[in-house]
Design goal:
By secondary structure, the chain is mainly alpha-helical. The protein has a domain of about 35 residues. Helices cover about 40% and strands about 10% of the residues. Strands 1-3 form a two-stranded antiparallel ribbon. The chain has a two-stranded antiparallel ribbon with strand order 2-10. Strand 12 and strand 13 form a beta hairpin. Helix 6 packs antiparallel against helix 7.
């Protein structure tokens, strides 16, 4: 059932609880009712908290939520538009990068709104039920901590603001990242205690206890706090209310929206144009009338193993003449590959394939193949498939597929990685990763016991790539593992435009592909050549306007 939270947000907006300025850290975040009179009753509190969910879900580029953009600025994806996301991927960004500015600005708007609620919530403590008061306070603390979680992932140390700012207090220096992480983990822990296990009906889409614990696990993992990551992930597992979706291929579609695997998802509702996103329009093939401006890399395609669990440079099942056969099923669940059917068209990106089958008619008909003929067809030869659903065919710019922010498979992989890094590689860690591999629609070979710390580390890193590609986690993974300087340097490749690779690339322990050994490497399409400055690019730039207007705010290194 679609969440109806957004229906009440209209009222919330009419009350005036919206941003009125774009000044530093959103100094005056709320216009309309003054803090002397607001909140006056429980209904106003609930409406204000409802609004936080909408503001937390913003689309900084192409009307796509942030997490669905991010992988297209890493080694596994590319943005065809000459955009700030493309700049971040290529390594030519500066402190005026539009995406970094948008993420920073929108994040602090959300934080300011959370702080307003938390600063004023006690005015209605005696006018609310205990349950609503505690839940609302926990929701505001959760959303604020969630926002700081990704701010620290992308920018490192940032100003930690926990109260509404005044003109006198507006200039704030950075807080050390470690202190912010401590704050985030504490907020998630305490919020979890006051959040319900689940919701129903109109409240679907709110943060739950499992949501707070899952994000605590993610935050701890990204900051190498292995014990806390394993503990929080185990706490989610012990709730016993989440399970893996049997059909990986439908999890990211309308059919998967009620899956018990989803711990938290951004909610969308097309009615009254309340909230929609344009993801299908950006990802779809040219035959499917999409723009194909966010595309996966050749290297991602080549990293998925064969069905025997071996890399394609090791498996006897791999055939360079039929490179997409006998592969981990998540390859073709995640990526549209040549020779498949995508959006009811034969999908073929060989440049000489000028005609293709259109299966939208009965019988099928031959039509001009825009995925080979159109100048803006996928530059890599592949398309993303997650969040592309035929039900959006008539209105590709207004999808209401809920966009997953965290799911149970990630929690299991957090647990497996954290246990291994703790030196506690026991059966529970094997069980966690093998649950993900063994879901019925994937059915990859189980990881056998007896792995070394290094071999299990390699396996779990690759598993995160197979399982979580196009979900916005790759950037944090590359940074946590300190391999972004390897992954984000050199040529970003698309397919051989009139043929196939002569043989498989070499796949290293981190799941990075090298084409130095491939005889016809020169025939691959070089989409762009990337650079990565190790002393700079492990952090995004703080927006220049912020450092100009606030002398206390020190720019990140080398920007």
């Amino acid at each position: 059932m679609k969440n109806k939270i957004y229906c009440s947000i209209i009222v919330f907006l009419l009350l005036g609880l919206s941003s009125c300025q774009k000044n530093y850290l959103d100094k005056t975040p709320l216009s309309g009712p003054s803090d002397e009179t607001y909140f006056s009753n429980q209904d106003e509190l609930v409406l204000a908290v409802n609004g936080l969910y909408r503001y937390a879900n913003y689309a900084p580029l192409d009307n796509m939520p942030l997490n669905l953009l991010l992988d297209n600025g890493t080694d596994i994806g590319w943005d065809r538009n000459n955009s700030p996301l493309q700049s971040l991927g290529k390594g030519n960004q500066d402190s005026n990068n539009g995406l970094a500015i948008s993420v920073w600005t929108e994040a602090y708007k959300v934080i300011a709104k959370c702080n307003f609620i938390l600063d004023n919530i006690d005015k209605v403590k005696d006018k609310s039920t205990v349950a609503i008061y505690n839940r609302s306070k926990a929701e505001a603390r959760f959303i604020r901590a969630y926002t700081y979680q990704y701010l620290t992932d992308y920018f490192g140390s940032v100003p930690l603001i926990t109260n509404v700012l005044t003109l006198e207090t507006a200039q704030v220096a950075k807080t050390e990242k470690a202190a912010i992480v401590e704050f985030i983990l504490k907020e998630f822990t305490e919020a979890a205690a006051d959040l319900p296990l689940n919701y129903s009906g109109a409240d679907a889409g709110r943060a739950t206890r499992g949501t707070a614990l899952a994000f605590k696990a993610r935050t701890a993992l990204n900051n190498a706090r292995w014990a806390e990551a394993a503990e929080a992930a185990k706490a989610v597992m012990d709730l016993k209310i989440y399970s893996l979706h049997n059909n990986y291929g439908t999890l990211f579609s309308y059919a998967g929206q009620s899956s018990p695997e989803i711990i938290w998802a951004f909610q969308y509702l097309k009615a009254s144009r309340t909230k929609t996103h344009s993801t299908p329009n950006a990802l779809l093939s040219r035959n499917g009338l999409g723009f194909t401006n966010k595309v996966p890399s050749q290297s991602l395609v080549d990293v998925y193993p064969c069905t025997d669990g071996l890399n394609i440079d090791q498996s006897p099942l791999f055939d360079p003449k039929a490179p997409y056969k006998n592969r981990d099923p998540r390859l073709t669940f995640t990526i549209a590959v040549p020779g498949s059917v995508f959006y009811n068209y034969q999908f073929e990106t060989h440049r000489d394939s000028v005609k293709c089958w259109n299966y939208n008619t009965t019988p099928a008909t031959r039509v001009d193949n825009q995925d080979a003929l159109n100048a803006f067809a996928t530059f890599t030869g592949y398309c993303w498939k997650k969040y592309v659903d035929l039900d959006d065919k008539a209105d590709r710019s207004n999808s209401e597929i809920n966009v997953i922010q965290i799911r149970y498979a990630e929690v299991l992989l957090i647990y497996a990685e954290a246990k291994n890094e703790l030196g506690q590689l026991d059966q529970s860690a094997y069980d966690a990763i093998n649950l993900v591999r063994a879901r019925p629609s994937v059915n990859m070979p189980l990881i056998p016991a007896g792995q070394s710390t290094a071999s299990f580390r390699s396996l779990v890193r690759k598993e995160r790539l197979y399982e979580l590609a196009m979900e916005g986690l790759r950037l944090s993974d590359l940074r946590r593992w300190r391999i972004a300087d390897k992954a984000m340097t050199g040529n970003f490749y698309g397919r051989v435009q009139r043929g196939l690779l002569a043989g498989p690339p070499q796949i290293d322990e981190n799941g990075l592909a090298s084409y130095n050994n491939v005889a016809n490497r020169a025939d691959m399409r070089v989409i762009e050549t990337r650079v990565f400055d190790t002393g700079r690019d492990y952090l995004w730039p703080i927006p220049n306007i912020e450092t100009v207007t606030n002398p206390k705010l020190i720019q990140n290194p080398k920007y």
